[in-house]
Amino acid sequence: MLVISKPLSTVMISPLLSYPLALLKLMEQETNVAPLGMARRVGTATSTFDVPAHNLLLALLEHAPSPENIIAKEVLVELGGCGNETVVLLAEMVIVGTCDMTEDDWAGLVHEEMQKPGNNFEGLTKLASHYLSHLLIACMREFPPRSSFTDILPLEVRNPGGPKTPQDTIHPTPDRKRIEEIEDLIKQAAFLRDGDYCLITSASFIPPDMVVARCAHIIPFSLSAKTQTHAAIEGFAGLVLSAQFVSENINHPRNALNLQNDAHDLMAKYMAWGIEAKYEGNEWKYYYRIVRPDRRIFFATLKDGDAIVFGSGPGGTHIPPPDPRMCNLRLAVSRVAYASGASEIFDKFVDDEDEDMMQVPVYFGGPFVSDDVLMRKLEVAMF
């Protein structure tokens, strides 16, 4: 199956998707900065971790890996729950395929009706909050370096209030030794496949002029056991990628590559770049894509759009390259985070952590730290 690797503005858009896209683009032109309210982390009554809901929904639809994603229908369903009879009818017409209006005319009429009093768009706000919490926040994870396992355990934070988010982990936390063994195996497999150098900076991992190699999960390690994140992945990816496949391949060379430190952090912490996979000439090819011009890899030898060559190591013909669907999913999520403004919020947390060396290290998705503790830590740091 061909994986769509460009924003949906550059590919054919399905009818179900084109109508909510037109509406959200119209909302973007409003003077009201948050016509659908603010999306926030699920489980908090108040939060400093806020993103305008319409911006997030628009970014999700524009950068989805497939035009046949579920989010478009979810937007229409929640729109139809606003209580306005005209909007309910218009949303239903698109869902069942009987709408004969142009996208712009439909969006204009819906938008006009949305300005009337008595409408309730809480469902759309909650939908945006779901994807913010279980897709974007979930992908801002970093597998902790070995030296940090013992540091993570005594984490203490001030509780900023609000109800706790129930954990939805479906697998028990693996022990520390097992995690280290898995990381070493994946790292060695990536060495055999790609050689002893960083594919983005060309820096050597072997003496004398060596840099430290860090194994990067393309899809973060913690996503393998989160059921709500599984649902968010399938809603976003549509027919392109199943959550089961992600879970089964999370700790596999097809979800990993070795990088030098800054290249690793700019992908894992800042979502500043990604890997685009395209099927060309009867084979998959991989390209370096800059997502955030404000966060570039200082020593990168690749420019935006340059090919990333996997398989040049001694075992390159035996160890599979990264899975194209997982590469494109991570790239799409990074683009959503940047387009919606969520990246700037994460920057605040990450930069504060880097500057304050007296704080206990916190790693998104660390197997010994719950999502609830992590997000409360984030909110305290940003308050």
UniProtKB/TrEMBL annotation:
Top-rank taxon: Eukaryota
Listed InterPro entries: HNH_nuc (IPR003615)
Domain HNH nuclease: from-to ranges: 198-266
Entry protein name: HNH nuclease domain-containing protein
Organism of origin: Tricholomella constricta
Taxonomy of the source species: Eukaryota, Fungi, Dikarya, Basidiomycota, Agaricomycotina
